[in-house]
Specification:
Structural class: mainly beta
Order of helices and strands: EEEE
Strand content: over 45%
Number of helices: 0
Number of strands: 4
Radius of gyration: 18 Å
Distance between the termini: 26 Å
Shape: flat
């Protein structure tokens, strides 16, 4: 059995919590045939950060990291 070990790197940075504008939720949808309805399950959640360039212009939103649910 061959495994692929990826190197782990941790970069400590300060994040201004005022730049977190919303949360993004990753959801899995499935159909429950016995109840004839759709069900959802949350897979992951991520804080969304406002991004600015060096001139202070707003560039968009980006998820900061994902927290997986199991």
């Amino acid at each position: 059995v061959q495994t692929c070990a990826l190197p782990i790197s941790i970069e400590k940075t300060e994040v201004n919590r005022d730049l977190i504008v919303k949360y993004r939720v990753m959801v899995d949808w499935f159909y429950d045939a016995s109840k004839y309805s759709f069900k959802t399950k949350i897979i992951a959640i991520a804080p969304v950060l406002k991004l600015y360039d060096y001139s202070g212009n707003f560039r968009g939103n980006s998820p900061l990291f994902w927290v997986l649910y199991q």
